[in-house]
Amino acid sequence: xxxxxxxxxxxxxxxxxxxxxxxxxxxxxxxxxxxxxxxxxxxxxxxxxxxxxxxxxxxxxxxxxxxxxxxxxxxxxxxxxxxxxxxxxxxxxxxxxxxxxxxxxxxxxxxxxxxxxxxxxxxxxxxxxxxxxxxxxxxxxxxxxxxxxxxxxxxxxxxxxxxxxxxxxxxxxxx
Amino acid sequence: xxxxxxxxxxxxxxxxxxxxxxxxxxxxxxxxxxxxxxxxxxxxxxxxxxxxxxxxxxxxxxxxxxxxxxxxxxxxxxxxxxxxxxxxxxxxxxxxxxxxxxxxxxxxxxxxxxxxxxxxxxxxxxxxxxxxxxxxxxxxxxxxxxxxxxxxxxxxxxxxxxxxxxxxxxxxxxxxxxxxxxxxxxxxxxxxxxxxxxxxxxxxxxxxxxxxxxxxxxxxxxxxxxxxxxxxxxxxxxxxxxxxxxxxxxxxxxxxxxxxxxxxxxxxxxxxxxxxxxxxxx
Lengths: 175, 282
Prior knowledge:
The complex is a heterodimer. Chain A is mainly α. Chain A is built from 11 helices and no strands. In chain A, helix 8 packs across helix 9 and helix 8 packs across helix 11. Chain A has 2 domains: 4-93, Alpha-helical ferredoxin (Fumarate Reductase Iron-sulfur Protein, Chain B, domain 2), CATH 1.10.1060; 101-171, no CATH class. Chain A starts with a helix and ends with a helix. By secondary structure, chain B is of the alpha/beta class. Chain B folds into 2 domains: 2-116, Glutathione S-transferase Yfyf (Class Pi), Chain A, domain 2 (Up-down Bundle); 128-278, Rossmann fold (3-Layer(aba) Sandwich), CATH 3.40.50. Helix content of chain B is 50%, strand content 8%. Chain B is built from 15 helices and 7 strands. Chain B has helices at 16-29, 44-50, 52-66, 78-93, 95-105, 118-126, 128-133, 156-159, 169-176, 195-198, 200-216, 227-236, 248-255, 261-265, 273-278, and strands spanning 2-5, 32-35, 73-74, 115-116, 144-146, 221-224, 245-247. In chain B, helix 1 (16-29) links the parallel strand 1 and strand 2 (32-35). In chain B, helix 3 crosses helix 5 and helix 6 (118-126) crosses helix 9. Chain B starts with a strand and ends with a helix. At the A-B interface, helix 6, helix 7, helix 8, helix 9 and helix 10 of A face helix 2, helix 3, helix 5, helix 10 and helix 11 of B.
């Protein structure tokens, strides 16, 4: 059976993360590290030590905002941003789910928007997110202000060839 | 010059002034935009956060559509630009993935069109001299800081068109318009991106820091090339800390004397008109 480290490396399909020599440049530059329960460097160490469940159940992997500062500065070219994508995908596929539930609900609402119209209609996507998260009333005033400025059109042009978009979703569906 | 144009979803909604100002500036500089036929969303953060293959297949569909015309494709939205460049990067590097994605999209990907940001096109194809020659109203007194955020320049081996730690092209554009771009160290710091919806307090903290640092640098506004950065900067700053935020193309259109600019400035949440009127630019 593959170790957690081997599994993560295989999915990253690039520089193996054991090349990290723990200089912590990734963490020094990470804009989210103060909000994370485990900083990016610590996540690498935890993967090396096989602490699969803790990593996949952590808020860290969802708070990573994919700013790519870590991969830009890593002297060993360890793609930590890609690693976070891999970990999120593993958390979903393994049934662990997301510790930061609303972040995943936002992504789900966003992708549902593409699946139904090919393009995102921002107000519809926001309504969908609010229904999923139960966070109905935040930003209401701002939303009304933007609606009055014509920035939230309830109807916007969609992709015509929806069959091709649906096929992409169908064929990339994860079990 | 003729280029294909990929507006992306935000430019038809919350960032409509970016769409309109890109079009106005392009018209003024002789860049002919041809919208990619029947484009679809690039997948943005939500696709790559949850499903790698989906995050490559969605932009691949658009790139394949763009390949029907042998010309560069202009992508003004930083997030779309980044997803396009990332898809191109993976499709070039990984033959097995390319074959699989072509099967999913149902057409071959040749990698024949260059993915370009308007900053790159204006500086490297049009040229700063030609831009400056089109200025009829110098933006004297405007002291912007240029704010690139994350997705235009990172990772550097994927994005490539300006320095990843201290980019300079936006400063050069702003100076060519007669503004005085202020130096600061936060050009490529993060605004919080899509966490603005699900983790608002974190984003407010990040935006407040950017606003404070812009003031400390002597700036009276911030300039971006990204709908998400603009939305966060314009809407998430704490009361009292706000500075006006512009798309760089809005300022270019203003300096080029284009009429529509006033309509766009009305759409901002932090009204930039008092600043511009004070400097007799509006």
